[in-house]
C-alpha cells in the first residue's frame, strides 16, 4: 500500500552494486617450466626437451644438460651469420692461369696445331728439282685455222618457239561466240518485229478507262518497287563522306527513282484515269 502511494522515494533511483572482483589467477606451474606438447629444440640430442602432447609433464630438472640446438631456434645468431671479411674471393682461385707461348710449346705443343686445314685454292708451285718443258715450237697458223673452221662450220639451229596457228584444231572454222552473237541479234530482231505487229494490231483501239482492279494492282506494284529502292537507298545513308563518283551517282539515281515513283503513285490514286493502249 505504501509503494503504490505517491512518494519522493519512488523518484530517487538506487545505484547498482558493483560485483566483487575475483582474485587474480596464478598458475601452479613455475614460469621457467618448458611448455608441454612442444616440438621446439628437440632435434639432434639424446635427451630432448618437452615433447609430451598429453600435458602431464611436471617441472623437471634437466641439470647441466643442454638440449637446445644452436640452429634449432629462429636461425643462427646475428654475429655468426655475418660473413668473415678475411675470407673473400681471391683471383686465380677458381681457374688456373694460362701459360705463356714458350711454356706451351715446350710442355704441350699439340695445342698449337690447327684442328682443320683449309683447302688449297691455287695449285702448288713447282719444286726446285722440276724442270719446265722448253724448245717446243709449232708451225700451225692459228688465225688461218680459226678462219677456215668458222667458214666450213654449219649454222646453228635456232629452236622455233612460236605457235603454229595453221595447225590449230579450229583453224578455218567459225568461232562459237559469233554463232551466239548472231542468235542473240536474231532474237532481238524478232522481238522488235513482234512489237511492231502488236502496235499495228492496236492502232484501231481507242482510249479506255482504267479499271479498279488494274489500278489497285498497279498501285501495289509501285509501292513494292518504292520499298525495294528505298531499302537499297537506306543501306548508303550512313555514309557521311561520298568520296567516290560511284557513291554520288548511286545516291542520285535512288533519289530520282523514289521521287518519280512517288509522283506516279499520286497520279494512280485519282479516281478517273484514262489509258491509251497505242502509246
Secondary-structure topology with pairs:
Blueprint (H helix, E strand, L loop, with lengths): L77 H4 L19 H7 L34 H11 L23 H26 L6 E2 L2 H23 L10 H24 L5 E2 L4
Antiparallel strand pairs: 1-2
Properties at a glance:
single chain; 279 residues; mainly alpha; two-stranded antiparallel ribbon; flat
Structure description:
With 279 residues, this protein is mainly α. 34% of the residues lie in helices and 1% in strands. Among the domains are: 32-65, no CATH class; 210-275. The chain has six helices and two strands. A two-stranded antiparallel ribbon has the order 1-2. The longest helix has 26 residues, at 176-201.
Strand content: under 5%
The low-confidence runs, each spanning 5 or more residues with pLDDT under 50, are: 61-65
Helix content: 25-40%
Q: Which shape, going by the Cα principal axes?
A: flat
Q: What profile does the largest beta sheet have?
A: 2 strands, antiparallel
Number of helical segments? Answer: 6
Number of strands: 2
Order of helices and strands: HHHHEHHE
Amino acid at each position: 500500500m505504501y509503494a503504490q502511494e505517491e512518494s519522493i522515494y519512488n523518484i530517487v533511483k538506487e545505484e547498482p552494486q558493483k560485483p566483487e572482483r575475483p582474485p587474480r589467477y596464478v598458475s601452479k606451474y613455475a614460469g621457467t617450466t618448458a611448455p608441454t606438447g612442444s616440438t621446439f629444440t628437440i632435434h639432434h640430442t639424446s635427451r630432448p626437451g618437452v615433447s609430451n602432447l598429453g600435458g602431464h609433464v611436471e617441472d623437471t630438472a634437466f641439470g647441466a644438460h643442454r638440449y637446445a640446438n644452436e640452429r634449432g631456434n629462429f636461425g643462427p645468431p646475428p654475429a655468426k651469420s655475418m660473413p668473415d671479411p678475411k675470407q673473400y674471393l681471391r683471383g686465380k682461385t677458381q681457374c688456373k692461369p694460362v701459360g705463356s707461348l714458350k711454356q706451351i710449346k715446350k710442355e704441350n705443343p699439340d695445342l698449337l696445331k690447327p684442328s682443320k686445314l683449309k683447302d688449297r685454292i691455287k695449285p702448288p708451285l713447282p719444286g726446285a728439282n722440276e724442270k719446265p718443258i722448253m724448245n717446243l715450237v709449232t708451225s700451225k697458223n692459228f688465225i688461218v685455222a680459226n678462219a677456215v673452221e668458222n667458214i666450213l662450220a654449219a649454222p646453228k639451229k635456232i629452236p622455233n618457239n612460236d605457235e603454229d596457228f595453221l595447225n590449230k584444231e579450229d583453224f578455218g572454222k567459225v568461232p562459237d561466240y559469233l554463232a551466239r552473237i548472231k542468235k542473240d541479234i536474231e532474237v532481238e530482231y524478232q522481238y522488235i518485229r513482234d512489237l511492231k505487229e502488236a502496235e499495228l494490231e492496236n492502232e484501231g483501239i481507242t482510249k479506255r478507262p482504267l479499271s479498279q482492279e488494274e489500278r489497285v494492282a498497279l498501285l501495289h506494284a509501285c509501292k513494292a518497287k518504292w520499298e525495294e529502292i528505298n531499302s537499297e537507298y537506306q543501306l548508303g545513308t550512313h555514309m557521311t563522306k561520298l568520296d567516290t563518283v560511284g557513291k554520288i551517282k548511286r545516291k542520285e539515281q535512288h533519289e530520282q527513282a523514289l521521287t518519280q515513283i512517288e509522283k506516279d503513285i499520286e497520279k494512280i490514286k485519282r479516281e478517273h484515269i484514262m489509258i491509251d493502249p497505242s502509246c
